Amino acid sequence: MFRIYTNQLLGQKWVKNYQGYLPIFACILGFTDTGLIPGISAAGATPESRKYTAIADAEFLINGVRSSYKYQLPPLHQGVSPVFITRAVIEDCNIPIHLFNAGLPIPPAVSYIDLKGQPAQCLTTGKALPISLVYDLFQQGLNWGQNLSKNATNNYLIISECVVGGTTTALAILTGLGIDSNGKVNSSHPNCNHEQKELIVKKGLKNSGYYNFFQPINPFQLVAAVCDPMQIVVAGMAISASRKTGVMLAGGTQMLAVYALIKTIINTSQYKANLDNIIVGTTRWVAEDLTGDTVGLADSIGTVPLLASKLNFSNSSYQQLKMYEQGYVKEGVGAGGAAIAASLSFNWTQEKLLNSIENLVNNYHRIIN
């Protein structure tokens, strides 16, 4: 049900260590004005609708199918939100969820843990977040990672995200850290808009003073300059949790960027992590995206085991799901990580996973229509 694409030995060791263990699922929500740039993301048909993507995904993630929603899932140009994949696994396997607001313009309509963050300004400003907030969010991430892992004797932690425009802030981190990443990141578009992303990142790094400065003295300052509030929270959470248990960073380009950020933090500060306990888990739509180079990016970062679910929608009865096979959406809200966990922890087959997702899609459309 999943494949290890990079660092085979460490990936196999991680899988062996945590096979049959039960996952704890954390989702960190954030927002960046970068996501409002026309054409930057397909996670919402318009810039206005993208303001509501994370809170709508969060409401569905927690509540599943309901007769009404405060924030209904926004329409996409093609396909459906990846939250259907995640919710199907979480609902049927009764996986505990912890929802964190790292910085949203509008609070979620469901229960969440408020980290008192704020939405990031567009990364082109070079002043995305206040440096004091970056340190505070990192510390809260450290505290929650320790909290969620302290009794995790038979558990591992899945850390997911929902940030519209997050692959562009991911490119900003990677470029600022001096990692060869141009043309390698992914997007929710069927053909990644590399040129647009690279121009935005170049402008932001130039305005921040980091352009062509490939070894930033302080990674926290880089985050403050061009990143989004989710990334530093996840970095802190993974660092502390990895000392006690396994951590799956559930996402594609965005979580590869967080992994690179973690490596830089532990190499330039007193913070310690057990990198052997951290993997990145995504979907094959990301890992095998011909308009990017996810595997090459993971290799450029080095040491990271990249896993991807083999979930396939080619035989789905729903056209919205088949659109994933044409390159739309690909990943989000921990979809790949949840699909991997379905196999790793609960021995689900491809058929069982597909049936569960299709049942959820069917129930949702039957009620809202």
Summed up, the domain count is: 1
Low-confidence stretches: none
CATH architecture designation: 3-Layer(aba) Sandwich
Q: Count up the helices.
A: 15
**What is the class in the CATH system?**
Alpha Beta
In whole angstroms, the N-to-C terminal distance is 33 Å
For the record, what is the CATH homologous superfamily label? Nicotinate-nucleotide-dimethylbenzimidazole phosphoribosyltransferase (CobT), large domain
H/E order of the elements? Answer: EHEHHHEEHEHHHHEHEHHEHHH
Q: What is the number of beta strands?
A: 8
Write down the oligomeric state: single chain
Shape: globular
**Helix share, percent:** 40-55%
- Write out the strand line-up for the largest beta sheet, numbering strands in chain order: 1-8-7-6-5-2-3-4
Which fold name is given in CATH as the topology?
A: Rossmann fold
Main sheet, how many strands, which sense, barrel? 8 strands, mixed
The radius of gyration over CA amounts to 18 Å
Structural notes for this entry:
This protein is an alpha/beta fold. The chain has one domain (2-368): Rossmann fold. 45% of the residues lie in helices and 12% in strands. The protein contains 15 helices and 8 strands. The protein has helices at 8-18, 47-50, 53-63, 83-93, 131-149, 166-176, 194-208, 219-226, 229-241, 253-268, 284-287, 294-301, 319-322, 335-346, 350-368; strands at residues 2-6, 22-30, 97-103, 113-114, 155-162, 247-250, 278-283, 306-309. Strands 1-8-7-6-5-2-3-4 form an 8-stranded mixed beta sheet, with helices on both faces. α10 (253-268) links the parallel β6 and β7. α4 crosses α15 (350-368), α5 packs across α8 (219-226) and α5 packs parallel to α9. The two termini are 33 Å apart. The model has no long low-confidence stretch (mean pLDDT 94).
